[in-house]
Amino acid sequence: MAKQILILFFLATTYCYSQSVYKDATKINDSTDYYLEIGLFNKEEKKSYSKAILYTEKAIEFAKKNKLSNKLADCYLQLATIFFELEKNDLAIDYYIRAISIYSKSEPKSNIALAYYSLGKCYLKKNNIPYAESYFEKATIVYEKLNFLEAIEVINLQKAIIKKEKRKYEEAITILKGVIENISDDALLSTKTEAYIQLGEIEVIKKEYSQALDYLNQAKYTNETSNNDFKLAKRIYKLLGTTHEKNNNISSSNFYLQKYVNLIDSIGKLNNSNLTENTVDKIQFDKQLKTIEQLDKERKSQQKTLRFSKLISILSIALISILSLLSLSLYKNNKIRTSTNKLLKEKNKELTLEKEKAERASKARADFLSTVSHELRTPLNAINGITYLLLQENPKQSQLDYLKSLEFSGNYLLNFINDILEINRLESDKVTIEKINLNITKLSQNIINSFKEFINENNINFHLNIDNSLNYNLKGDPTKISQILINLINNAIKFSKDGDVWFTISKKSETENNITLHFEIRDNGIGIPEEKQEAIFDSFSQGSVEINRTYGGTGLGLSIVKKILEVMGSEIYLISEAEKGSTFSFDLEFEKGIIDPVTIEINQNIEFSNEKNILLVEDNKINQMITQKMLERKGISCVIIDNGEEAIENVKTNNYDLILMDVHLPGINGTEATTEIRKFNNTVPIIALTAISLNENREMLLSYGMNEVITKPFEPEHLYTVVTKYLSNTE
Fold this sequence. Notes:
This protein is an alpha/beta fold. The chain contains 27 helices and 12 strands. It has helices at residues 2-12, 25-28, 32-44, 49-65, 69-85, 89-103, 110-125, 129-145, 149-165, 169-182, 189-205, 209-225, 230-246, 250-271, 277-304, 306-391, 397-427, 440-450, 452-457, 478-494, 545-551, 557-567, 621-633, 644-653, 670-678, 698-703, 716-729; strands spanning 436-438, 461-466, 474-476, 500-510, 514-523, 573-577, 581-592, 614-617, 638-641, 658-662, 686-690, 708-711. The strands form 2 sheets. Strands 1, 2, 3, 4, 5, 6 and 7 form a 7-stranded mixed beta sheet that branches.
């Protein structure tokens, strides 16, 4: 399959490599093309993947240094292809996506189609069929626009393989026959050969061995007509041998398996290798040949013993007569057993129906909560935004109390919505765990600092105890760890008014590369009765209605903690006694990390040397007003447009320093508008404004050419931070 990617690569790109590179090296003078060609030579001719990676990375450095964006995309594409051939699919996916993110900012061309196609191959290897189909379809669309019909047939081959994996054999056969009929270019004869092989394999699955042999013979003829690819020849001979065996043609099976072994032997001699993968295959198939020969001898031996078997049959009749009497006595027992089995099957069927009904109900619940949570974010953005603006205008004391109450209610509702989305996300298995550098001491201190006001309000004596030897960084997920600690510490403070809270981190075990930490949050508050402790981790559970009325909260915090720890391979432990307090504890294993990079803080009060020009694309009138007012408070003016079509035309004739783009617009949505703008403007920063739901994906939004994503309802300080960052870059 890697060969098909190479064919597309050579058809799609306008340069090719020759060994004259070495003669002209002094002329090329460290250019990106030079390094790319050296990397390609090491991969193709020398089979030295380490050097291929080295020179391709040098090409990337040169392209970045000289701001050669298109060349940088070509570099990412070549590096991704190297990782694909090394079967490092995750690295390949990463660099293919980087290439696409640059290519997609310009007019569609064949290289982006190649990247889409290769991404589909990667996801096909990872058995992620939906993603594979999606990227194959994107590649097809680009090739159709370019009228690159031969390349489409290579993609159709992959679509047929997917149909085959889904056991949609008739659909796969139709596509494969179309591939064979439409390919005329000699450079794609290997694709035609692969199509014949796939047809043969399908017929073998259907046990239509004669038809399978016809297709495999066609594959053999096509391969021999082209450049006689050794790998394809090996597969064809192997399939012909095993198919003849299934068709009870031992001599033909022997013939093709012997050809297979001879081909492996010749490849081994060419490679001058004592023990290669081919040698191992040769040994394996030598054994298979001997097995087939042994089976043939046994068949002849069985014919000789047939007469003896007839004598045994006569004796068996007598034995059968005796057994018949025993069978009669077992008849009644079998009848009872049959009726019992029938009853069990009916009960199993009922249980299956109930299980499916419960699963549908669970999915409906999750979809409903996700939809409601998503739809609440837009009006909640208006509530929080207007409240913030009013609080900034020095309201009267009587008004201030109302606004503070409104601010509290808005934040409470936002936390509730976020908790619902987090529960849905955890239950839908759409959570990934990051492994990035973090300082557990700094992280813990920052969390405690964020609770200072809440600690003072509840008159809490807070005790923070962290092992002093933890003076180095760890690799983990700071977001998930923060969620766990914030929920547990918040509960400890809330339920221990006028009391004490202890937060302890200690070292449990350590190796050269890993460390296991023990986390403990203890309080001397109201505690949890023993009969309520088992249910306290269920969603929307707080022990009693009285506790909910007295202390508030959603009842989702401990459920989220439990589910996050399960995803991270750990579990939560509880020791509690009513009126004496509670202790929550858990263990987490970390890899030892490296020193954190220096964090650069952005000054939100930065003064710009010239007036900045911002375009706000937003259809909601209230959100238009709120965002405009927030920007004006920082001395930034903006132009407002309420639909994607006008925004595209406006950007063509006006220069903007920044675009704030709502994703959900009438007509052309925000992602489509961004894609169109990137066709003629690659420089202006575009920031997405969206209420990301359970099914939305931040990476997907960035792939359309957006630079950053701000989630509604957004905090004003976060909006200022992001806007300031990108406006500072345009100074």
